[in-house]
Amino acid sequence: MYIFESWRDNSTGKIVSTNPVYSFTITENKILTANFVQQVAQKFTVTFKNESGHVLSVQQVNAGEAAIPPVNPTKPDHSFERWSEDYHNIQSNMTLYPIYKANEVLYHVEVINGTIASGVTNYRFDSKVTIVADAAAEGMVFSHWESNGMTISYSETYSFYVTGNTTIAAVYAENAALRQPLVSLSPNVIASPDSKKLSFIGQVNAPAHYTLVEWGVVVKKSTVPLVELDLTTAGAIRGRSSTLTVTGQYMLNKTGVNAGEIWYGRAYLIYQDSEGQIFTVYSSIVQGIMPE
């Protein structure tokens, strides 16, 4: 593509105007040449990210042209609707995020020895819920919150994002629990057959004086139940997470899962104490199955 640049007086070689419409008074024979130059397309950077901020695609797109979106991302219990901005006539650098519509699926939250701050017991996926422990009986103190046999928090007021039907109980004891970093893994592994993806949702809970080094989920496919699974297990896949929600939760996806496959997962947390010692703790093992 060429665009107008200037008018040149052939007799003098001088540029007489850069306006495409040039008016002048004739005083002699004159030859003018319109100069055109090839336009170098201006390029803009278009970035597609998922809801967590991870980059799905980065493209250099000519001005006025369209970007090519990646495969529509997925979110459990939600339907993809569109990207956050139009990407068909790019005129500037852009970052786009997926827009989802929540499906009409509700999950029940049951709290034992405590209350739900909102008073509501049924929630959509990814709704934030805050629960408060009941006052301890005389001679007892609040110890921790427990779900599926695992300690998940030492805070009397505890918040989390709903991933499925959930039962949580406040536990009391004569003496307060020794508060150390915890990691848990939701038993509600989310299967997405269309995208061949299993989503594991973990949660980290660590007192302020500990330093988080690494957290994630270790997974392994197996046709028999796994009773041992850790970072040293042969054939296991280690998935590191780089982000945490405000409630300490994170999601890791195992992609390329075929129908009928069974994958076992276990959340892990590597942390450092105030003396510089490194420790690794694990959640319980959960099972995820891709429907036939």
Any chance you could write out the topology, listing elements then pairs?
Blueprint: E1 2-9, E2 15-17, E3 32-38, E4 43-49, E5 55-62, E6 78-83, E7 94-96, E8 98-102, E9 107-112, E10 114-116, E11 122-123, E12 128-133, E13 141-147, E14 150-153, E15 157-161, E16 166-173, E17 182-185, E18 190-192, E19 197-205, E20 211-221, E21 237-241, E22 249-255, E23 262-272, E24 278-289
Parallel strand pairs: 4-7, 9-16
Antiparallel strand pairs: 1-2, 1-3, 4-5, 6-8, 9-11, 10-12, 12-15, 13-14, 13-16, 17-19, 18-19, 19-22, 20-21, 20-23, 23-24
Content of β-strand:
over 45%
Order of helices and strands: EEEEEEEEEEEEEEEEEEEEEEEE
The CATH superfamily of the largest domain is Immunoglobulins
Number of distinct helices: 0
Q: What global shape is seen?
A: elongated
**How many discrete structural domains?**
4
Note the gap between the termini: 54 Å
The strand count comes to 24
What would you call the structural class?
Answer: mainly beta
Mean pLDDT: 91
Largest sheet: 5 strands, mixed
Helix content: under 10%
Q: What spatial order of strands do you see in the largest sheet?
A: 11-9-16-13-14
The low-confidence runs, each spanning 5 or more residues with pLDDT under 50, are none
Radius of gyration: 30 Å
- Name of the level-1 CATH class of the largest domain: Mainly Beta
CATH architecture of the largest domain: Sandwich
Q: What is the CATH topology of the largest domain?
A: Immunoglobulin-like
Question: How would you sum up this structure, described in words?
Answer:
The protein is an all-beta fold and 292 residues long. It has four domains: 2-38, no CATH class; 43-102, Listeria-Bacteroides repeat domain (Immunoglobulin-like); 107-173; 182-289, Immunoglobulins (Immunoglobulin-like, Sandwich). The chain is 0% helix and 51% strand. The chain has strands spanning 2-9, 15-17, 32-38, 43-49, 55-62, 78-83, 94-96, 98-102, 107-112, 114-116, 122-123, 128-133, 141-147, 150-153, 157-161, 166-173, 182-185, 190-192, 197-205, 211-221, 237-241, 249-255, 262-272, 278-289. It has a five-stranded mixed beta sheet, with no helix packed on it. The mean pLDDT is 91.
